[in-house]
Amino acid sequence: MTSAHDIAARVAAGSSATTEVETSLAAISQRNAELNVFLYVDEEGARAAAHQVDERIARGEKLPLAGVPVALKDNLCTEGIPTTCSSKILEGWRPPYTATVVERLLAAGAIPMGKTNLDEFAMGSSTENSAFGPTLNPLDPRRVPGGSSGGSAAAIAAGMTPISLGSDTGGSIRQPAALCGVVGIKPTYGLVSRYGVIAFASSLDQVGPFAANVADAALTLEVIAGHDRMDSTSLPETSPSLVAHLKDGVAGRRVGYVKELVDGSDPDVAAAVAAAVEVLRAQGATIVEMSIPELQLGLSAYYLIAPAEASSNLARYDGVRFGLRVDGDDVAGMNEATRTAGFGAEVKRRIMLGTYALSAGYFDAYYGQALKVRTLTINAFQKAYADVDFLIGATTPSVAFPFGSKTKDPMAMYLNDVFTIPSNLAGDPAVSVPFGRGEANLPIGVQLLGPGRSEAGLLAAAQVLEDAERAR
User: Fold this and answer.
1) How far is 141 from 425, CA to CA, in rounded Å?
2) Residue range 244-259: average pLDDT?
3) Which residues are catalytic?
4) Residues in Cβ contact with 170 at an 8 Å cutoff, skipping those fewer than 6 apart
5) Are the C-beta atoms of 139 and 133 separated by less than 8 Å?
6) Mean per-residue pLDDT for 456-467?
7) Spacing of C-alpha 224 from chain mean position
8) CATH 3.90.1300.10 fits 4-242, yes or no
9) Which residues contact 441 (CB under 8 A, 6 or more apart)?
10) Taking 80 as the threshold, does the pLDDT of residue 198 lie above it?
11) What would the pLDDT profile of 329-354 be if each residue is shown by its tens digit?
């Protein structure tokens, strides 16, 4: 599919947004039955939105995403459109309001095409946990697309839409971006509104874009970022300028090559990161080899903090107020029957882990200790960024893995996020950009990490790597 920049330019010049919608619908129709990317395709809504965009352009409005089709992860509320979090407990639920990020896309002229598949309530690294079946990786349908935002990443890789939105709690944008060979951004916590995003772990969740190239990802982030009074954690500042800085390069920048962000990865992944380091060096960056041992503690802390917050957030699904209801002999029986039938195995596992960690007698030993480790991680990053401008490492330990290869061992699955989780604990931004090929000629993701509000510099470095990859 054509880039978002090119589509917006065409529509601004007089081409009909309807043409772009029909192209996207045709691409979805061609492969969605095979890949299970979209859980819901809003054909009628997309065509109506395209007509509105054409009218706005005719009135002289300047729309940065005019006529650009976009896929939305199915944990982003859209008024009147089914929003399920890939869970039976929300099957058929239609929210009465729309997430701020979706409103901002609409205001910019983008056209939502529908809702994409994910691991149930964003809990997973492979999109195998969806109640509505797994999404297949468009590059090799025998392999996973990553997770939890697997559908949104696959939509880009399959050419269904040029941009999409996902959410990243422990790597759920960057990990599927790496496995599907696309660009994925986890912004600084608070830069993008969480209003209307169905919560998994509120202190970690952040919405961000996927795209086939760095420029489209940067443009999408510009559109959705900025303060929102509906989100109490929203940073009190306007959206940063990102596209204008994509050609800034890395000359004079100090880049930390972090041992802990590569250790344990497959040899071809480690080699790709090393090659990316040399590209940055050749473009004028100073490379500083670093060790941040605190990052090794991130996985353990995350799998106490995130389940604890999930235990609290998912208590609202009780069969009373909205969603699935399974009758019982009394209220307690109804609540138990509803949650037993409505939640999948991984969600139940994390609720139980979180409830245990928060329980009397264990709170200090588990949740309290995890919060201390989170503080150690934050401090370790701050110390590193006092010496370097940003960090580089692998996004994932391997390329996309076969279906079923990790489902019987939760720890093996959780380890897919070992390189991405630390940024969520710290609230810092990070970008995954395709660079190099590994097993079965599948793409590898290289990760760039920076301090809060450093998205412009990270994307400029990502652009350097993208340009080098295209030239190879």
Assistant:
1) 32
2) 98
3) 73, 148, 172
4) 204, 302, 306, 417, 420, 421, 424
5) no
6) 99
7) 14
8) yes
9) none
10) yes
11) 999 999 999 999 999 999 999 999 99
Q: What is the pLDDT of residues 389-445, one digit of tens each?
A: 999 999 999 999 999 999 999 999 999 999 999 999 999 999 999 999 999 999 999
Handedness of CA 241, 247, 250, 252 (dihedral sign): negative
Mean pLDDT within 291-307: 97
Its sign, for the CA torsion 153, 203, 199, 81, is: negative
Residue 72 structure tokens: 């939305």
Burial of 421 (0-12, 13-18, 19+ CB in 10 A): buried
- Provide the residue type at 344 as one letter: G
Q: Return the structure tokens found at 150.
A: 């697997």
Q: Which of 82, 102, 98 is nearest to 90 (CA)?
A: 82
pTM above 0.85, yes or no: yes
Domain boundaries, the chain: 4-242
3-class state of residue 222 by DSSP: helix
What are 254's strand-pairing partners? Answer: 286
Q: How far is the CA of 336 from the CAs of 218, 301, 325, 330, 342, in angstroms?
A: 44, 29, 10, 10, 10
For residue 87 the two structure tokens come to 């869970």
How many CB atoms are located within 10 Å of the residue 329 CB?
8
| Cβ atoms of 78 and 98 closer than 8 Å | yes
Sorted by sequence, the CB contacts under 8 Å of residue 15 that are 6+ apart come out as: 67
> Which residues contact residue 359 at a Cβ distance below 8 angstroms, ignoring those fewer than 6 apart?
none
SS3 (DSSP) at 106: helix
Place of tokens 């589509």: 7
Sequence-distant (6+) residues with CB within 8 A of 467 are none
Res 120 pLDDT > 90: yes
* Residue position matching structure tokens 């959410």: 167
- Taking a C-beta distance cutoff of 8 angstroms, is the pair 161, 69 a contact? yes
Short-list 154, 135, 114, 132, CA closest to 34 = 135
Look up residue 441 and give its amino acid. Answer: N
Omega within 30 of 0 (cis) for the link into 149: no
Average pLDDT of the chain to the nearest whole number: 98
Burial label, 332 (beta-carbon count in 10 A; 0-12, 13-18, 19+)? exposed
Average pLDDT over residues 264-280: 98
> If we measure between CA atoms, which residue out of 458, 463, 462, 450 comes closest to residue 391?
450
**CA 30 → CA 23, 265, 439, distances in Å?**
11, 35, 27
Q: Determine phi and psi for 38, rounding to 5 degrees.
A: -95, 130
Q: What pLDDT was estimated at residue 1?
A: 75
User: Average pLDDT of 434-462?
Assistant: 98
Instruction: Indicate the pairing of strand 390-394 with strand 254-258.
Output: parallel
